[in-house]
Structures are given as C-alpha cells and as structure tokens.
Amino acid sequence: MPADAGTLLAIRRWVGTSPDDTDLNARWDRLGNVEQTALEVLETRRADMVAGGRSFSVSGFYSQGSTAEAVKSLDDDIARLKAVIAGNPSGVGMARLSRSDLRR
C-alpha cells in the first residue's frame, strides 16, 4: 500500500528530497512507519557517506564533502529518530504515523 501525500511529507521532513517517492514507498510498504522509514534512509545515507569517502549530493540540490561535521549531523538526526521511536522525543514535535494494516 503506497504512502499517502501526508505520510511522504512526514518522511521528507526527516530525509529531504532524496530518495524518490518510489524508493520511499517501497520502504514504507515494508516498514509501515514514518520514523523507521526515515531512519533506514538516514542510516543508509550515513553508510554511503562514510564508505564513499569524499562526497554526498542530492542531484541538482545539494552537495557536500564528507567531513566530520556532515557525519555528525547525520548521527544527530539518527539519534533524534531513535529517541522518537523509543518514545523519548526530547522536544521533537512530530506525530507517529503507522499503517493500520501492519500490527507492530
């Protein structure tokens, strides 16, 4: 079941414009949760940044060298998401959205 526009927007608030909707829908269909979907994207992005060495970019929008600050920023986002998932949002003002047909 593809994510609706509101769900995609909630995921994009965490991950930005990349990956595309097709990729996000596939992850959403498998995971069924905004935070888990966003976490998977950010963890993959961090792994690519560290393994790829020098750069990270979103085609046409953003490019940055793989500096310690960039990795730290991703680590901070990942930690905030994990806190939300654990029920400890520490001031993060986001609602948890889950698919009703997946029981977790």
Describe this structure in words.
The chain is mainly α and 104 residues long. The chain has one domain. The protein contains 4 helices and 2 strands; from the N terminus they run αααββα. It has a two-stranded antiparallel ribbon with strand order 1-2. It starts with a helix and ends in a 19-residue tail after the last helix. The model has no long low-confidence stretch (mean pLDDT 82).
Short description:
With 104 residues, the protein is mainly α.
Q: How would the blueprint of this fold be written?
A:
Blueprint: H1 5-15, H2 21-31, H3 34-52, E1 55-58, E2 62-65, H4 68-85
Antiparallel strand pairs: 1-2
Helix pairs in contact: 1-3, 2-3, 3-4
Key traits:
mainly alpha; 57% helix; 8% strand; two-stranded antiparallel sheet; 4 helices; 104 residues
- Our estimate of the beta-strand percent is 5-15%
Largest sheet: 2 strands, antiparallel
Order of helices and strands: HHHEEH
Strand order of the largest sheet: 1-2
How many individual helices?
A: 4
Unreliable parts = none
Question: Could you estimate the helical fraction of the residues in percent?
Answer: 55-70%
Distance between the termini: 16 Å
Instruction: Kindly provide the radius of gyration, computed on alpha-carbon positions and rounded to a whole number of angstroms.
Output: 14 Å
Task: Work out the count of structural domains.
Answer: 1
